[in-house]
Predict the structure.
Amino acid sequence: MYAIVDIATTGGHASANGITEVAMLVHDGQEVIKQFKTLINPLKPIPIYVQALTGIDDEMVSTAPKFQDIAHKIYELLHDKVFVAHNVNFDFSFLHFHLAAAGFNLQTKKLCTVRLSRKIIPGLASYSLGRLCKEVGIEIQDRHRALGDALATAKLFSMLIEQDKDGHISKTLNQRSREQSLPPHLPKEDMDKLPSVPGIYYFHNSKSKVIYVGKAKNIRKRVASHFANNKPGRQKQDFLREIHHITFQECGTELMSLILEAVEIKRLWPAYNRSLKRFEYAYALYSFEDQNGYMRLVIDRKKKFSKPHYTFNGIAEGYNLIKSLIAGFNLCPKLCFVQRNNDPCVPIGEESCKGACEQLESVELYNKRVIMALNSLSSVLPGFLLIDEGRTFEEKSCLLIENGQFFGMGYITSDLAQADISLVKKYLTPYPENDYIRNMILNAALRFPH
């Protein structure tokens, strides 16, 4: 038995909106044998644009029952039937959410007439209920009211059952099939193509624009997890409605997928990615020349588009580095903003500061030591190849850190794994680098030194 369902609501997501009308038609696989419809008081104002769409206003629902007063009846009609709707996850998310609030746990199989129509009646320009029904000759009475749309959906469902020569409905209802959890516009074929390997995946909208980039240790499993729950919040519901296609790139390792995700988010700036868009280290080491010509070193907030000598997570890390440069190259703590008071420079008496702060040392000699100190940073910055598993048994993945900077990554044959860096470099694809990527690679190298 099937329950054909349509609802009217105050908005697009269940967690912050109410139901204003519900219609449920019990269908035996051939025809409708029972129907139930009612207005519902959503206990909140109905927006003007929703009133214009549905014709349901605040006065009409003022004397209607509250959802919790009829929840038991709705649950009794739905709990032992296949839940059918046009864009089923929308209607199901509302009823599941509000039934749960009333103490009922609705768990049923679902069928989406949008997805079924794409399979059984392929090639149409649009699969919205109005345009689809017009295309197949179904007249809708009382459009955008729950009963009118539910009756049209029931006629469409009867037509789909009759024309389903390839058994799409039974395949969809198969216990192992998760097709009904997919977004309404996403072809199942896109999911079927996903591999169970590390990599990144792209969600595209109707215009093929990338709206989300994700990384995964197992692409197929991770993508499926996006659709495993039907959270009633606005962000999740809007996100699901926008997904029309999925593409992917395989990677040899999870680390490579993390790096490629960060690169692609910065490149594509997808609408639904947030966490990696603005990640930057907070502090940096800068140098500048003061009015007397002396080079000054300073730890400051990292500035956008600047070119610091070094970057840090925290200010303490920065001052530890600058103090080591002061000690190692006899720099002046005052000119490095480590000693900030007006007292005489402490190291002058110890002869570790040569008096640049008092202009007792020439600009040339002092600046020469500052340059040596800055050059020493590059000499201690790491340079290495990180070799790991590839996408096939015949290849190895390879990441290159050169002078402390991420150069790029790619795949090489096993015999090149011991080759000189200059040779391996020719096989790698350069990528933009940032602190986040560099830090991931350095941490991986520390965890797995061999």
